[in-house]
Design brief:
Layout (H helix, E strand, L loop, with lengths): L1 E5 L3 H12 L3 E5 L7 H4 L3 E2 L13 H22 L10 E5 L2 H15 L5 E4 L1 H7 L9 E5 L3 E2 L2 H14 L3 E3 L13 E4 L17 E11 L10 E6 L2 E7 L4 E5 L13 H15 L7 E12 L6 E4 L4 E5 L9 H12 L14 H13 L14 H5 L1
Parallel strand pairs: 1-2, 1-9, 2-8, 4-11, 9-16
Antiparallel strand pairs: 3-7, 4-6, 5-6, 10-13, 10-14, 11-12, 12-13, 15-16
Helix pairs in contact: 1-6, 1-8, 3-6, 3-8
The protein binds glycine.
C-alpha cells in the first residue's frame, strides 16, 4: 500500500513511522519539517493537569496516550539511537495568593474526574515535593501520573526513525490532497490543515502561544517536578529538562499567524508569573523566546478519522499534540488498515461539516434560491 502523509510535524512522522512498520510504502510531504507546533511545545504529557472543562471526551484518549508514552519513548530511542528527554516526573500545581485558591480548587474538582491520582498537599508538603517552590505558596496538589518529554528531541528522533524505516521525505508543498498519488492520504498539517481541499471544511485555526526557554548555569538548581500554577488569575507552567533547560509557558491568544507582536508583554508576563511560583527562575539565563500556534478546533477536540475512503485526518490536536502522539499514530495506522477504532468516536473530522449542513438545512426558508446543501455521503456518514 502507498501511503502519503501531508505534514512532517511529530504527529505526521509518528503516523508515517507506524505505517512503514506495518509494511506500507510511505512518502511524507512537507517543505519545512518540524517548523510548526512541535518546535515550540513544552512537552507535558499531562492527562491530569491538561484536563479542561468541556473537553471530557478527550480524557480516555489522552490517558491511553499518556500510558503508551513510556514504551513509545523507549521504542523511538531504540529505533533512532537518540534520546527523547522522557522524564517520569509528577506535576505540582500551586497558587500563591488566596485569590487563586478558588481556581485551583475548581481545577482539582476536574482533575479528580480523570480517575488518575491527585493528592492535596500542605504548603510544607508541596515544598518537599518541589524544593524550589516559593515560600509564599498557599495551596498545592500533586499529579503523580503526569510526565514530560522534549518535543524537539522527539521530532529529531522521529526523523531518524522514519528514515531508517524507509520513509521518503519530500520537501514539496502540497496544494490539493486529491492530486497526490497514493492509496491512502493522511492530512497531518496542524494549523495549516484548513486549505487542502474544497470538499471539506477542516476548521483548524492558529491559537498563538509564546514560550520562554531558560537555562540554569553552573550549579544553579532547577525544579525537579513540572510546576504549574495560578498567579493573579493567570495560568503558567514550568517544565524542566535533564539538560538544565527550563521551559516557561504559555500565553494564549488569537491573532492569526502573527509571530511578531506582543512578545515583550508575553516575556514580562511569563517571567512575572513563573517567578512568583519559583523565584529561582529569575537567576537563569534567558535563551529563547518562541512563538508558535496550537491547531485549535471549535470544540477543542482533535480531528482524527476518515474524511473519505482514501483520506484520513490527523490534525487539530490543540494543546495536546505531544501527549497524543502515540495514541494518534496507533489509531491512524488502524484506520489505514481498514479498522474503525472506537477510541476515535468523539473526534470525527466531519462533525462540523455535518452540523453546518444541518443548521443550513434547518434555517433555509422554503422556495428560496438558496443552493441545496448536499447530504453527507455514505462514506462520511459511516466514518
Ligand atoms: N499544552 C501547553 C500549551 O498549550 O501551552
Amino acid at each position: 500500500m502507498r501511503v502519503a502523509v501531508v505534514g512532517a510535524g511529530s504527529i505526521g512522522l509518528a503516523v508515517a513511522w507506524r505505517a512503514a512498520e506495518a509494511g506500507a510504502k510511505v512518502v511524507v510531504h512537507d517543505p519545512e519539517p518540524g517548523s510548526g507546533a512541535s518546535r515550540v511545545a513544552a512537552g507535558m504529557i499531562a492527562p491530569v493537569t491538561e484536563a479542561h472543562y468541556g473537553e471530557e471526551a478527550l480524557t480516555p484518549f489522552i490517558a491511553a496516550s499518556a500510558d503508551a508514552w513510556p514504551a513509545f519513548a523507549r521504542e523511538l530511542e531504540a529505533a533512532s539511537g537518540l534520546g527523547v528527554g522522557f522524564r517520569d516526573v509528577p506535576t505540582v500545581v500551586a497558587c500563591v495568593e488566596d485569590g487563586d485558591r478558588a481556581e485551583l480548587q475548581r481545577q482539582v474538582d476536574l482533575y479528580r474526574r480523570t480517575a488518575r491520582h491527585v493528592e492535596t498537599l500542605t504548603a510544607r508538603a508541596a515544598r518537599k515535593a518541589e524544593p524550589l517552590l516559593s515560600h509564599r505558596v498557599r495551596a498545592a496538589v500533586l499529579a503523580t501520573e503526569d510526565r514530560a518529554v522534549d518535543p524537539r528531541a522527539v521530532h529529531t528522533a522521529l526523523l531518524a526513525a522514519v528514515e531508517d524505516a524507509g520513509v521518503e521525505l519530500r520537501s514539496d508543498r502540497v496544494d490539493d490532497l486529491d492530486a497526490i498519488e497514493a492509496d491512502q492520504v493522511v492530512l497531518a498539517a496542524g494549523c495549516g490543515s484548513a486549505n487542502f481541499s474544497p470538499k471539506w471544511s477542516i476548521p483548524v485555526r492558529p491559537v498563538r502561544g509564546a514560550v520562554l526557554r531558560l537555562r540554569a548555569v553552573g550549579d544553579q538548581p532547577v525544579p525537579r517536578t513540572t510546576v504549574r500554577g495560578y498567579v493573579k488569575g493567570h495560568s503558567v507552567y514550568i517544565v524542566t529538562r535533564d539538560s538544565g533547560e527550563v521551559v516557561v509557558g504559555a500565553t494564549s491568544d488569537e491573532r492569526g499567524f502573527d509571530r511578531r507582536t506582543g512578545t515583550a508583554g508575553a516575556v514580562h508576563d511569563l517571567l512575572r508569573w513563573s517567578v512568583e511560583l519559583v523565584p529561582e527562575i529569575a537567576e537563569y539565563h534567558l535563551e529563547e523566546v518562541s512563538v508558535g500556534f496550537r491547531p485549535g478546533t471549535p470544540d477543542n477536540l482533535p480531528l482524527i478519522g476518515r474524511l473519505d475512503e482514501r483520506t484520513v485526518a490527523a490534525t487539530g490536536h490543540y494543546r495536546n499534540g505531544i501527549a497524543l502522539i502515540p495514541a494518534t499514530a496507533t489509531a491512524v495506522a488502524a484506520l489505514i488498515a481498514g479498522e474503525e477504532p472506537d477510541s476515535l468516536a468523539a473526534f470525527d473530522p466531519l462533525r462540523f461539516n455535518r452540523s453546518e449542513a444541518r443548521t443550513r438545512t434547518l434555517t433555509a426558508a422554503p422556495n428560496t434560491t438558496t443552493r441545496p446543501v448536499p447530504e453527507p455521503t455514505t462514506e462520511e456518514a459511516d466514518s
